[in-house]
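Each record in this resource describes a single protein on a pair of labelled lines. With that in mind, the following record should read easily:

===
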Amino acid sequence: MKKKIIQAIQENESLSAYKIEVSVSSDRIVTLIGEVDDWQQVVDCGHLSAKVKGVRNVVNDLTAKGIVIPKRDRSEEIQQAIANGKETACDIVVIGAGVIGCAIARELAKYQVKTIVVEKNSDVAEEATKANNGNIHPGVLAKPGTLKAELNLKGNEMYTQLSKELNFELQRPGSLNVIYKKSEWRKMKAIQVMKKTGLGHLVPPMRQVMKVPGLKWLTGEEVKQMEPHLKGDPIGGFWMTTMGLVEPYEVCIAMAENAVENGTEFRLNAEVLDVLVENGRTAGVVTNQGVIRSEIVINAAGVYTDTIAEMANDRFFTIHPRRGAIAIIDKSRKGFLKTPAGIRGGKEAKKNNTKGGGASVTPEGNLLWGPTAVEIPWKEDKSVEASDLDYITKLGMSVTNEIQRSEIITFFAGIRAADYMEDFIIERSRKVGGLIHVAGIQSPGLASAPAIAEMVAGLVNEERGGLLENPNFNPIREPKPQFRHLSHEAQDNLIQKNAKYGNIICRCELITEGEILDAIHSTIPATTIDAVKRRTRSGMGRCQGGFCGPRVLEILARELEKEPTEVTLKGNESYILKADSRQPIVAGRRKP
């Protein structure tokens, strides 16, 4: 295996000149050490190694010239956290409160276990969960035989019931692959024949397509009827009718709130500093808020899952951050496209390990362009560069040329937590008892989330030797009023009950003070500007908070009994105001 890996690297023209040390452990984990010129070469070496038959995973310790990824020494912080004497006990600790961690927490609430979720940020859904396009993928593009393929299909189906229980909006407009090339149309017609006859099961790459329900092949005329604003004259289209659309942060918040309502505890601003391992088993975690003792630790820390694994001395994979940027179009274009759409036959998807992207739609009606797929060294680098916007514009305009770049109202980026096998890692540790890894969760992670959670509960059951059902589990999360979606009569009735619902704070999205108060005093309180935005949509309109931002800040300060200068955008030290400008004037100038 080692010889094959070295050969694969040396046969690559851009890598042949470098001295790269390769080692393979008894459990088929490849470790790479050395230095190359740029970061893409680091990533290429990892992928080439992962493709060699028999490799379980890759630990990539290659460095690139001029790129320094500092490692913090946390030993002093760990000792302080242990010494402060704050210690809690529970059955299970879940590290990470993104959509995966919150889905796991909600699933575990169905059983008689005490679970604590720890999250280093000030709110749930702060990382990749808030920064994706909300697509519940149908499963066509997942590689056959992978966990992604299996859990994507299952998770997609589970969303229908989940949306009813948790009262978040799920739309199923399907997804459209638009075909302009005759060669692509012939390929798609061949797939149609194989699907109808069942012969696709004999062709390995086709096996996943055979399992996906609701696939439809459209003529060019049918495509234009469905989406009249598409560019040019399509030859045909491939419609995946089970594609769903959600607001990803709404799903995450709903899962988290329902978990709390069923006894789960969430600790925000709680960063894991160390994983406690005693006699070959997990004994809990050390956080900046103290020690949490538990017999099971679930590692769902997104881009930091490899860091958590290393803390437990079970590092067998490397997460290489892949940044994806998305642009949002003004809601004045609502209804312009009914379905997410992309062009069939693009080369970018295969090259960048993505589904290709294009134009998508949110449940609220905004169009989304993107995403990009850029390999980067730093896990916190969520910048959007000019080249990203150029690529995003190219993607969007490949679908329709009627929307201008000037109609973009904002853009953002998230970091995909990719490993070199490009598949989900969901397994009990082979080295440390009680440790469960839920890593490498990138697209279709959102679509797969409920199925991933169910699988993790099964692993917990194996680890504990049995889980007892919680007879008091309530799967229903009651919805909060959304003033903009109510009839005039319902709006009047709501205002009669609480006049705060008659006070419009966000004009663009028609968000009321009553809704903002609901968010601040909710099951998982919104304590920052961004947390309020995710729960209510205040600040998501065309003015991007220019009008409502100061009012939301004022309400947060009042309700949290803080000074306005203490209110943050997204926790930590992201203060919005530096000081009170209304200081007494002394000798012609403001008093310092």
